[in-house]
């Protein structure tokens, strides 16, 4: 102890003066010094003999292991083995999000190659699932929150000014008004990254700006009626539907093209992955322009009169058109007739919007109704009555719905699952609302109206996690160029637009069947058919006709039995579920006359 | 004759023995009995001859030293054994007849000692033959044999081949015979030896084709047959006899050699076992490589990336003599060889530094680093300063300093001063060469344009020229001139100034290094300013609230105030509404309420009423749908025609009107398009309801479309009232409004029926058509009004299979097109690739995309990892034995590490078994 203290008291200065010894300088002396010190630690009591030897042996074993590890190039940093080797396991629930449907029946043993192929693909999908889940855990941490009012306070009563005051300065600056009363109501469009804003006044005023920095990129007056404006694939170009033709300008306001083939365009949609600009005209034509090559891909005559309600399904690039007879039609450039025609409203359809996942469609009509449809089954989900009707609708990335009734903009939360009674937010602007658009990746709703433009804050509207490779709001010019090249390389052909975007990965059943039939004809038998059971020929008179039939029947019965068992099981399950659903609503005892009662539609 | 050798047969070979060997007759006899079979066989044939030979045993006793009986025995056996062996060797050359003759002669006539010389010769001949045999068949060669070989005459050697040739005229033309034999021998040496046909010497029944007497060929020979003679001869000792008896009992014969295929098979087996053992050693490594996810060739590659320095240095060895010499010197002088930076002991000592020491050392290092960074930062800052004046001053100061230094240098170190001077001269030369300060640059040109009007520009140009002049001026020898021309370049700031160790003002005061060193306190410019500004902001924000209130509180208060105001407003609104409601009459109550709802839906009281109203409305619309009166329809259609483009048309109208740029409310126009008051719905005749209900029942469709459309709708209360309501329109627009309402009411019905028609048409088109192939009049009466019989119709009307059920079968308000989209199917897979049998199997594998668009980078890397990776240009050597050794060692270690328990268990069992075996 004392010696230790003394050692501690020594200052570094003294020690530093000591020249560090070299090994060729009297190594023998050192050894001498070391020898007694090493063997005898002053405070250490000699341990019992047995334990000591044990320790020694253990130590030697360890050393051996360590040496072995070293010999093989694995440099062990610590001698302790890692108690949790490998990467951290990903919980099952997290992985479920990325699970692909890989269910397949047990393949017979003899199909070795097929089994191998299927197994390897399953293993691959497992790897991808695990990896993506792991990264999801790490990277997609941001979550959107919503505005929450005090007790018995509606969130819709909170004004924009209050929100802007409450939030931080940068977010607060996102609430602003542009007073542009001169050139009439404004249509607007945000670029895909959400950085640029394009405004098109009815009376010819077109302006694009970086709305966050409030930097004006260009401002022109086309001296003509402007029906709609739309950004093309990047913020370098935009399309303006003017009184007669469709024009394309660049971000500095220079007219690049005047496309005479597209006349009287009323509304436009841009399909970013197909590089298609879809236009709906007053003459009832739906036209597709390939922006990457400048060609008209398809022109479809809808025979439905003036087309002024249009939106796209972001999931499958199908165009939805609303008509004055209350129908909404779905179109692809590949078919000359509507893929689906839905009757949605009594009066004309005023506005249509489809959510990001392509599952829900929201429509508003002249009958002042707001309806939500399930696009998978084409069935109505919810129906709302808006006292003033909604003139335009917009859906945000996170599924917030904004509806404009007159000069009021209302925002609804979760319209499809539970019937809402009150809007989530409401805001009054100065003129009739003409254009509504949620800003991508921002909690901002842009409203174009008679008096100009209002950017309002809608907490929880934008997707907080953006895909940096797809649409990066913070990208530089160089990154944009690179993205453009990649996007062009990955451009999806218009041929592939169909109601089911996964159709490409499916086998074309019609041709497959045809080919199979041809094969059967050529071969004289069906190679895929399950061969019939043929009873074995038994000798010594045991293969009598009756016996053979009996054996055949046995096998047939077994097959039947399997089917029956499965159906019975299913029935029992469904009955259970029904019981659960009913939850004792109906009386347990059924009267004999109950069977004549009309069953309620399921 | 000094030492006499004995010829006897041993083990089928002829041997020459010395006396000493012969002294042990027992052993010689024992060996002697093991003469191999073919010789014996041959011997037997000449048994009588042998006997006769044995009878004249005395003649062969050429040596007096040996006991006669032993000698004769030996001689006798050896004689005919040797004889016959020679015969076998020479095969067909042997003529027994000749020999017999000579032998007979010998026996008959040559009993005289004169003739003993010929006998001697013969004997010698025999010896040589025997010796030759020995050399042929045995590898052993005794020295005596060599001796004998020496004794053999040349002529006798020549005679070897034809020793069988009869020697009738031995006395006479010896030279001729010799000559002839020589010739023959020579000829024999050359080409092929002449084969002589064997002569038959005995009359036998059987004739062997191998020119050997076939007498007694079929019989089997027993040992007893052979030793019979021994029993008769009394000369044979009892000992040998007993030996022979023993042998007789044992009857041990040597196994006949295996056949060629058999030996080959055995050899092959052994070879296979060996090679399989060899190959099976590679089994595990091969299996492992087959199973491995990825193989990188060449196999034993060094890990990429930089190696640790120690490894590189340690691995290096001195090879060239020069290097070796250097290393020898280094080692002699005890210089560090491996690690020139730190010796191991140094490292140890470093490690062994106490904590305190280490801390202090670290702190020192930190300090140095910090100082360096400060200095760097300062330099950077100074460099980035754009102020010309600042640089001017700076340069001036530098110049002054330089002059001072130069002065000192002149005194102290004239050589370096001269160098400095030369540097200056070089700078001048450079300046003269370059176009700098020549007023020829872009800037200068622009300035030249401006120079006419701008005084500053002119000045700047002048300055430039002056600088140029200064720089290009030739150096005067005096120092004063040099000082003036001193340029910025020359005063390089490469030496670290003293202020490096000083702390920059305005740096972080929290830094201990600053605190410790600085005597003057760091100027707190930034730190206190922040709170000040914040405070200022606060004050400006809520001045009235007093200083003690925080920011948050202020905000909250603001909110509360605003809320209060709003509530007050709302209360006022409500009051007004209530007044309105009182005025409302009963009959148009619904309409009024509706209006109210549109006026201010934020009211909670009215919300319930609203819902009721909506229900009524839906009922009414139902009724309207059922009403298909022609009058109404006509009216509605007229309306539709008028107002088919309701909103936009009107809006456009509005646009034209507003062109005057007046402050018109566009909203009013829009609201016209969708009128808020469906007043007309209220006056509805009640009895119609039942009528409608009846019609409803008549409907074909299972699902009532109208019902679907007018599904119970949730009414939403909007907190803010749209400003533009009916107020402006009033009675002026009354008629128009009504028309709109009617249109709205009846348009729905029309729309529905149209839609249904559409759908029916679609369904019809999709249904397969019946092909009618009946020929009226065939087989029965034909004519007008007559129809082919039912039977015929049934037979000749072909019905195609019904199509699969429509996708929109259960959906009344949806038409889904059944047309096939061929554009996608062009890109789809029509036929399945090889291992797939069913489309589902293929689709499942297709569902797992591999690309980077859908997967993370890591996953893509893992999935698309190639099975084999080869290095370009590298030779891939086959696996060597070292790899095998390494592999086995690794496996052993794994086994000892106890990682795979399953694998370990059977190993232990096996080892136990082995132990048992060894015990046994």
TrEMBL record, chain A:
WD repeats lie at residues 342-383. Residues 9-19, 61-78 have a biased composition (Basic residues). Residues 423-501 form the BING4 C-terminal domain. GO terms for cellular component: 90S preribosome; small-subunit processome. Residues 1-92, 536-555, 570-602 are annotated as: Disordered. Its main location: nucleus. Keywords: Nucleus, Phosphoprotein, Repeat, WD repeat. InterPro entries: BING4_C_dom (IPR012952), WD40/YVTN_repeat-like_dom_sf (IPR015943), WD40_repeat_dom_sf (IPR036322), WD40_rpt (IPR001680), WDR46/Utp7 (IPR040315). Pfam families: BING4CT (PF08149), WD40 (PF00400). It is found in: Nucleus, Nucleolus. GO terms for biological process: maturation of SSU-rRNA from tricistronic rRNA transcript (SSU-rRNA, 5.8S rRNA, LSU-rRNA). Scaffold component of the nucleolar structure. Required for localization of DDX21 and NCL to the granular compartment of the nucleolus. Part of the small subunit (SSU) processome, first precursor of the small eukaryotic ribosomal subunit. During the assembly of the SSU processome in the nucleolus, many ribosome biogenesis factors, an RNA chaperone and ribosomal proteins associate with the nascent pre-rRNA and work in concert to generate RNA folding, modifications, rearrangements and cleavage as well as targeted degradation of pre-ribosomal RNA by the RNA exosome. PANTHER family: WD REPEAT-CONTAINING PROTEIN 46 (PTHR14085:SF3), WD-REPEAT PROTEIN BING4 (PTHR14085). Part of the small subunit (SSU) processome, composed of more than 70 proteins and the RNA chaperone small nucleolar RNA (snoRNA) U3. Interacts with DDX21, NCL, NOP2 and EBNA1BP2. This is WD repeat-containing protein 46. The lineage of its organism: Eukaryota, Metazoa, Chordata, Craniata, Vertebrata. The gene is wdr46.
Automatic annotation (TrEMBL), chain B:
InterPro entries: SSU_processome_Utp14. It is found in: Nucleus, Nucleolus. Residues 480-492, 540-553, 603-616 have a biased composition (Acidic residues). GO terms for cellular component: small-subunit processome. Transmembrane segments: none annotated. Residues 675-689 have a biased composition (Low complexity). One of its GO terms (biological process) is rRNA processing. Residues 97-136, 478-618, 671-701, 781-811, 875-920 are annotated as: Disordered. Residues 559-602, 880-893 have a biased composition (Basic and acidic residues). Pfam families: Utp14 (PF04615). Keywords: Nucleus, Phosphoprotein. The keyword Nucleus applies. PANTHER family: U3 SMALL NUCLEOLAR RNA-ASSOCIATED PROTEIN 14, U3 SMALL NUCLEOLAR RNA-ASSOCIATED PROTEIN 14 HOMOLOG A. This is UTP14C small subunit processome component. The lineage of its organism: Eukaryota, Metazoa, Chordata, Craniata, Vertebrata.
């Amino acid at each position: 102890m004392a010696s230790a203290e003394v050692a501690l008291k020594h200052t570094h200065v003294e020690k530093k003066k000591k020249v560090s010894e070299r090994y060729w300088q009297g190594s023998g002396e050192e050894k001498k010094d070391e020898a007694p010190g090493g063997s005898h630690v002053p405070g250490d009591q000699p341990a019992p003999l047995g334990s000591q030897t044990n320790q020694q042996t253990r130590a030697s074993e360890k050393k051996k292991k360590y040496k072995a590890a070293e010999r093989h190039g694995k440099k062990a940093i610590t001698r302790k083995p890692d108690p949790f080797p490998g990467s951290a396991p990903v919980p099952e629930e997290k992985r479920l999000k990325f699970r692909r449907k890989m269910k397949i029946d047990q393949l017979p043993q003899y199909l070795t190659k097929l089994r191998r192929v299927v197994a390897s693909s399953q293993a691959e999908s497992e790897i991808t699932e695990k990896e993506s889940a792991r990264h999801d855990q790490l990277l997609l941490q941001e979550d959107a929150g919503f505005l929450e009012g005090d007790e018995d306070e509606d969130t819709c009563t909170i004004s924009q000014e209050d929100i802007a005051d409450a939030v931080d300065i940068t977010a607060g600056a996102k609430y602003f008004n542009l007073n542009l009363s001169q050139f009439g109501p404004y249509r607007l469009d945000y670029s895909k990254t959400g950085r640029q804003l394009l405004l098109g006044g009815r009376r010819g005023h077109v302006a694009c700006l970086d709305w966050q920095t409030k930097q004006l990129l260009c401002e022109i007056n086309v001296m003509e009626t402007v029906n709609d404006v739309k950004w093309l694939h990047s913020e370098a170009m935009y399309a303006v539907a003017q009184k007669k033709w469709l024009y394309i300008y660049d971000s500095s306001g220079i007219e690049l093209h005047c496309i005479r083939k597209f006349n009287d365009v009323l509304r436009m949609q841009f399909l970013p992955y197909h590089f298609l600009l879809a236009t709906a005209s007053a003459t009832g034509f739906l036209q597709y322009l390939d922006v990457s090559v400048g060609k008209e891909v398809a022109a479809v005559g809808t025979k439905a009169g003036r087309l002024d309600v249009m939106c796209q399904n972001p999931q499958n690039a199908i165009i939805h058109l609303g008509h004055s007879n209350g129908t909404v039609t779905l179109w692809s450039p590949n078919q000359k007739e509507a893929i689906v025609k839905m009757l949605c409203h009594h009066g004309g359809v005023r506005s249509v919007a489809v959510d990001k996942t392509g599952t829900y469609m929201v429509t508003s009509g002249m009958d002042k109704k707001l309806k939500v449809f399930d696009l998978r089954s084409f069935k109505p989900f919810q129906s709302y009555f808006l006292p003033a009707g909604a003139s335009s609708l917009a859906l945000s990335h996170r599924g917030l719905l904004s509806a404009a009734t007159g000069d009021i903009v209302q925002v609804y939360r979760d319209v499809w699952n539970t019937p809402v009674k009150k809007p989530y937010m409401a805001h009054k602007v100065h003129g009739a609302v003409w254009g509504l658009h949620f800003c991508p990746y921002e909690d901002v709703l842009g409203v174009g109206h008679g008096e100009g433009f209002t950017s309002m804050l809608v907490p929880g509207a934008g997707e907080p996690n953006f895909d940096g490779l797809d649409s990066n709001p913070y990208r530089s010019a160089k990154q944009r160029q690179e993205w453009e090249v990649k996007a062009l390389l990955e451009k999806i052909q218009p041929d592939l637009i169909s109601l089911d975007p996964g159709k490409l990965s499916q086998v074309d059943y019609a041709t497959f069947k045809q080919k199979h039939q041809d094969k059967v004809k050529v071969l004289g038998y069906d190679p895929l058919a399950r061969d019939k059971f043929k009873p074995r020929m038994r000798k010594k008179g045991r293969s009598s006709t009756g016996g053979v039939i009996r054996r055949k029947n046995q096998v047939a019965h077994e097959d039947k039995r399997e089917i029956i068992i499965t159906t019975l099981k299913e029935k029992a399950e469904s009955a259970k579920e029904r019981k659960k659903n009913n939850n004792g609503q109906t009386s347990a005892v059924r009267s004999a006359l109950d069977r004549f009662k009309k069953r309620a539609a399921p | 004759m000094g030492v006499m050798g004995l010829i006897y047969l041993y083990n089928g070979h002829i041997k020459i023995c010395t006396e000493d060997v012969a002294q042990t007759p027992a052993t010689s006899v024992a060996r002697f009995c093991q003469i191999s079979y073919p010789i014996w066989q041959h011997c037997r044939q000449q048994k009588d001859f042998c006997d006769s030979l044995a009878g004249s045993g005395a003649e062969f006793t050429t040596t007096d030293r040996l006991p006669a009986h032993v000698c004769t025995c030996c001689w006798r056996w050896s004689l005919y054994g040797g004889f016959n062996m020679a015969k076998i060797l020479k095969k067909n050359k042997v003529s027994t007849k000749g020999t017999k003759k000579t032998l007979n002669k010998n026996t008959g006539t040559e009993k005289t000692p004169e003739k003993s010389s010929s006998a001697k010769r013969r004997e010698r001949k025999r010896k040589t033959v025997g010796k030759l045999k020995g050399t042929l068949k045995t590898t052993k060669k005794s020295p005596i044999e060599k001796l004998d070989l020496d004794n053999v005459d040349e002529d006798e050697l020549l005679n070897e081949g034809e020793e069988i040739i009869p020697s009738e005229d031995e006395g006479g033309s010896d030279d001729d015979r010799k000559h002839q034999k020589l010739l023959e021998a020579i000829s024999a040496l050359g080409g092929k030896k002449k084969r002589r046909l064997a002569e038959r010497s005995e009359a036998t029944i059987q004739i062997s084709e191998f020119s050997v007497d076939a007498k007694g060929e079929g019989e089997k020979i027993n040992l007893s047959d052979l030793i019979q003679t021994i029993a008769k001869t009394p000369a044979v000792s009892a000992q040998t006899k007993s030996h022979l008896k023993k042998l007789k009992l044992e009857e041990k014969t040597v196994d006949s050699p295996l056949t060629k295929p058999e030996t080959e098979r055995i050899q092959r087996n052994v070879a296979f076992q060996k090679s399989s053992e060899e190959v099976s050693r590679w089994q595990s490594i091969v299996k492992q490589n087959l199973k491995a996810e990825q193989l990188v060739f060449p196999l034993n590659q060094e890990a990429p990336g930089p190696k640790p320095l120690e490894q590189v240095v340690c691995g290096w060895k001195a090879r060239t003599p020069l290097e070796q010499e250097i290393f020898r010197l280094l080692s002699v002088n005890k210089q560090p060889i491996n690690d020139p930076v730190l010796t191991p002991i140094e490292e140890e000592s470093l490690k062994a530094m106490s904590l305190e020491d280490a801390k202090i050392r670290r702190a020192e290092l930190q300090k140095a680093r910090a100082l360096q960074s400060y200095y760097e930062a300062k330099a950077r800052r100074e460099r980035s300063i754009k102020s010309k004046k600042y640089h001017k001053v700076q340069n001036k100061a530098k110049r002054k300093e330089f002059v001072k230094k130069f002065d000192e240098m002149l005194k102290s170190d004239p050589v370096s001063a001269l160098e400095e001077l030369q540097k200056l001269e070089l700078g001048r030369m450079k300046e003269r060469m370059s176009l700098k300060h020549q007023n020829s640059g872009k800037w200068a040109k622009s300035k030249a344009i401006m120079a006419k009007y701008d005084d500053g520009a002119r000045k700047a140009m002048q300055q430039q020229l002056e600088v140029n002049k200064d720089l290009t001026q030739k150096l005067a020898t005096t120092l004063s001139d040099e000082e003036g021309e001193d340029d910025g370049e020359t005063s390089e700031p490469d030496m670290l100034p003293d202020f490096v160790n000083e702390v920059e003002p305005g740096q972080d005061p929290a830094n201990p290094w600053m605190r410790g060193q600085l005597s003057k306190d760091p100027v707190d410019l930034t730190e206190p300013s922040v709170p000040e500004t914040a405070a200022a902001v606060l004050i400006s924000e809520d001045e009235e609230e007093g200083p003690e209130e925080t920011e948050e509180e202020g905000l909250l208060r603001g909110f509360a105030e605003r809320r209060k105001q709003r509530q007050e407003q709302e209360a006022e609104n409500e009051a007004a509404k209530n007044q309105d409601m009182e005025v409302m009459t009963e009959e148009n109550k619904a309409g009024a309420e509706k209006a109210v709802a549109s006026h201010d839906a934020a009211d909670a009281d009215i919300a319930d009423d609203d819902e009721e109203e909506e229900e009524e409305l839906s009922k009414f619309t139902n009724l309207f749908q059922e009403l298909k009166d022609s009058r109404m329809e006509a009216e509605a259609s007229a309306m539709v025609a008028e107002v088919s483009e309701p909103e936009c048309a009107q809006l456009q109208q509005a646009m034209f009107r507003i062109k005057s740029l007046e402050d018109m409310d566009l909203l009013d126009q829009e609201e016209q398009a969708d009128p808020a008051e469906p007043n007309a719905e209220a006056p509805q005749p009640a009895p119609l309801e039942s009528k409608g209900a009846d019609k409803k029942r008549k409907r074909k469709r299972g699902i009532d479309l109208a019902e679907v459309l007018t599904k119970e709708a949730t009414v939403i209360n909007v907190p803010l009232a749209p400003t533009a309501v009916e107020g402006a329109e009033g009675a002026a627009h009354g008629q128009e409004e009504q028309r709109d309402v009617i249109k709205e009411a009846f348009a729905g019905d029309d729309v529905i029926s149209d839609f249904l028609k559409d759908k029916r048409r679609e369904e019809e088109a999709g249904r397969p058509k019946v092909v009618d192939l009946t020929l009226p009049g065939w087989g029965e009466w034909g004519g007008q009004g007559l129809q082919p019989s039912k039977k015929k119709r049934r037979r000749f009307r072909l019905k195609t299979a019904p199509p699969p059920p429509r996708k929109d079968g259960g959906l009344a308000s949806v038409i889904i097109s059944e047309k096939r989209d061929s554009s996608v199917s062009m890109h789809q897979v029509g036929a399945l690739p090889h291992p797939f049998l069913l489309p589902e199997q293929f689709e499942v594998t297709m569902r797992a995309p591999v690309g980077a668009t859908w997967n993370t980078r890591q996953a893509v890397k893992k999935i698309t990892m190639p099975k084999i990776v080869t290095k370009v240009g590298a030779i891939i050597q086959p696996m060597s034995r070292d790899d095998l050794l390494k592999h086995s060692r690794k496996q052993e270690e794994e086994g000892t590490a106890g990682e795979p328990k399953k694998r370990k268990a059977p190993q232990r069992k096996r080892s136990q078994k082995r132990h048992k075996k060894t015990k046994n």
